[in-house]
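[Structure tokenization] protein backbone as discrete codes

[Encoding] learned vocabulary of local backbone shapes

[Begin record] amino acids and matching fold tokens:

___
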Amino acid sequence: MKQSSLMSLIESTINILVGFGIACIAQAIFLPMLGVPIPWSANFAFAAIMTVISIGRSFLLRRVFEALHIRRPLSPMMQAVVAEKFRQVEVEGYDAAHDDMLVTTYLSDYAIHYAERWRDEQHDSDKRRHLVKAGALIIAEGEKFDRARKGKRRVEKAAA
């Protein structure tokens, strides 16, 4: 997903404020070591000036990078399917290791089950929920397939 201008500004500001603190400490330590004694007020003022410049630079670069990465926006349905896939892993614990232990087509069979159940639901939100779960399970099955295929290629290379 594309980052909003506001989130770019917030991210850049937090990043630069952390940098401001590091700059103040580094200048206080290293400038005197280099023979450039600097009072705290000058250290603070110089760090503040560089911080404002850095915020502007970071924000502009972030917006340029966002503009250069032409992305197709995800529809609300696609976002829901991806969120459900993450939920299945993070909340339910159905990670790759779990999925790989399942019999082939188990995940896709359940996806079919959910995809067929959506027609029988009376409420639209429940219909959508079944389709979201079906989509997330299809992704899990596809990822399992890719892992198995990748593992098969490694075995074939090792045997050659």
User: Anything to note?
Assistant: Helices lie at 5-33, 40-68, 76-90, 96-101, 106-117, 124-159. Residues 5-68 form one domain. The radius of gyration is 26 Å.
